[in-house]
Amino acid sequence: MKPRLVLDTSFVLPFLGVNVRGIDPGIVEEYASQGYELLYPLLALPELLGVITRAAEKRGLGKLPREALEGIEALIRGEDVKLVEPRFEHIATALELRLRGHRDIFDCIFYSTALHEGAALLTADETLLKFIKAEGYDASIILLVRTRR
Fold first, then answer.
1. Helix (H, G, I), strand (E, B), or coil: what is residue 11?
2. Each residue of 18-42: pLDDT tens digit?
3. Quick check: pTM over 0.85?
4. Phi-psi region of 60 (alpha: psi -120 to 50; beta: other; left: phi over 0)
5. How crowded is residue 95: how many other Cβ atoms within 10 Å of its Cβ?
6. What are the structural domains, with CATH classification, of the chain?
7. How many whole angstroms separate alpha carbon 128 and alpha carbon 104?
8. What is the DSSP letter of 8?
9. Rg of the Cα trace of the chain?
10. Residue 63: which of 71, 72, 53 has the closest Cα?
């Protein structure tokens, strides 16, 4: 079985033509070349769509660039990154994490999806890692990428 890797939104954005400051877009390609199956929770699509529309607005665009639309279509088709349908345990754990004090529900969704899919989670979110450790959850599945300044 292939190793599995849940990507947080920062690592999916380059597939849609959005560069993320401080993150090497080649890191995901590196994991893919090592045979990882790349995953993104379907429940996180609203976050992704919000980020790309805000990026387009910041640039004064009246519509999304074709590259972004093609990237969304490829994501829906599962070309490079497979969308993971939510299961009850994904939602239950995400809500538990949120109620235990983690403020970002999407971070909770990424972590719970990775946990229940037997995957690692690629993130640049140190706050999530600290929270997971402090609450006694399995932090070994989190692959923290330090951002370049």
1. helix
2. 888 888 878 999 999 999 999 999 9
3. yes
4. left
5. 14
6. 4-144 (3.40.50.1010)
7. 9
8. P
9. 15
10. 53
Locate tokens 């805000």: which residue? 54
Amino acid at 110: F
pLDDT tens digits for 105-134?
Answer: 999 999 999 999 999 999 999 999 999 999
Token pair 């590196």 in the structure block, residue: 30
∠ CA 113-50-22, nearest 5°, is 75
Tokens, residue 71: 């990237």
d(CA 149, CA 84): 32
- Amino acid letter for position 68: A
Residue 119 CB neighbour total at 10 angstroms: 21
